[in-house]
Design a protein that fits this description.
Blueprint lengths: L19 H4 L6 E3 L4 H11 L8 E5 L5 E6 H4 L8 H7 L8 E2 L4 H10 L5 E4 L5 E5 L1 H19 L16 H28 L1 H6 L2 H30 L5 H31 L2 H31 L4 H28 L1
Parallel strand pairs: 1-2, 4-5
Antiparallel strand pairs: 2-3, 5-6
Helix pairs in contact: 5-6, 7-12, 9-11, 9-12, 10-11, 11-12
Length: about 350
């Protein structure tokens, strides 16, 4: 069906859920550049009951491209003979705020707040006007997003990619968790192969074997701490600035690694009186702790982006990767120093 404003009513299912296209209305006042203030007054008088919003008059070009947006207040300060084209010129190069049909509802609402707008026009990829998201809809978006954030902060809200242990069936829980544990088992076998590769070095310096569990455990512990942090923080803030988050953890982890390495160096030097062994274990511990940034933060973040539950996937995967990296770093350092 075709309306007097030349916009076609579109089915909501045409657009993604929670998008501007799904939420917009086509019942808005639209005029051409050649219209006058008097024409606008006549338009509103004749069709006021049809419009969902009359906060703004939307101006389109001959190609139906959005050319400008005029507020009612500004329009009726002018003489009735004043042309819309002249009003647009008076605005100068004022930024024309609009969104596309696929823009997420949260961005629409934030854009309205940022620019103090009562409605946001929606355009297609060719800048042709499709409709507008009204003030009532914007308020509903803000309300739903606020409720969602509150529930997320309280730990009630969960994304569909996160397993619900109490509601999922036994077979689903096993299917979601077992593959990652099998992957971890394979990684453990590979880690044993790394140790075997350096068996000659171990035979010459048997004391090195005593520190393998320590190096592996501390690096895993630091990585596990960061895993818990990022899984929680991503649940609370899905739009987390990951680079800034990574840099903050890098600073903290570097300090922790330095402190623990110094403590280990002093302790091993006092107990074993072997400076070279102390250098090996302390340097390896520092590098293993710093490498846990990848397994503790990057791995869970990537799994989240790939729509896997980080609680299922990142634990076994990150742990075995970290174990292999820690062992490899330990023996490489030992090969260089001893």
């Amino acid at each position: 069906m075709k309306f007097h404003n030349n916009l076609l009513e579109t089915k909501g299912s045409k657009w993604p859920v929670a998008s501007a296209g799904r939420l917009m209305t086509v019942h808005i006042p639209i005029v051409q550049m050649t219209a006058t203030v008097g024409d606008i007054a006549k338009l509103l008088t004749e069709h006021a009951a049809v419009y969902k919003t009359i906060n703004y008059i939307y101006v389109i070009s001959e190609r139906k491209e959005l050319a400008g947006v005029l507020s009612i207040k500004d329009i009726f300060r002018q003489l009735s003979a004043m042309k819309v084209a002249d009003l647009i010129k008076q605005q100068g190069r004022k930024e024309l705020i609009s969104v596309t049909s696929h823009t997420d509802q949260e961005h629409v609402a934030l854009l309205a707040l940022k620019h103090s707008l009562k409605a946001i026009p929606v355009v297609d990829n060719n800048k042709q006007l499709l409709g507008a998201v009204t003030s009532d809809t914007i308020l509903r978006i803000l309300d739903s997003e606020a409720v969602e954030d509150i529930l997320r902060f309280s730990g009630i809200y969960h994304k569909s990619t996160v397993d619900n242990v109490l509601n999922d069936s036994l077979s689903v829980s096993i299917r979601h968790r077992l593959p990652w544990l099998v992957l971890g088992l394979a990684g453990g076998i590979l880690a044993a192969g790394i140790i075997k590769f350096f068996e000659d070095l171990l035979a010459q310096h048997l004391i090195l074997a005593a520190f393998i569990p320590l190096i592996v455990y501390v690096a895993d512990a630091v990585g596990t701490q960061m895993e818990a942090f990022i899984i929680r923080d991503l649940a609370l803030n899905p739009h987390l600035n990951f680079f800034r988050y990574l840099m903050r953890h890098f600073a903290v982890t570097t300090f922790i690694g330095s402190l623990l390495s110094i403590i280990l160096f002093v302790a091993t030097l006092v107990i074993y009186s072997n400076a070279r062994v102390s250098v090996v274990v302390s340097a390896a511990l520092f590098l293993a702790i710093v490498s846990s940034l990848v397994t503790g933060l990057v791995v869970p973040y990537l799994f989240g982006k790939l729509k896997f539950d980080p609680a299922n996937a990142s634990g076994p995967t990150a742990t075995i990767i970290q174990d292999m990296v820690s062992v490899l770093v330990y023996f490489i350092v030992a090969s260089w120093v001893l």
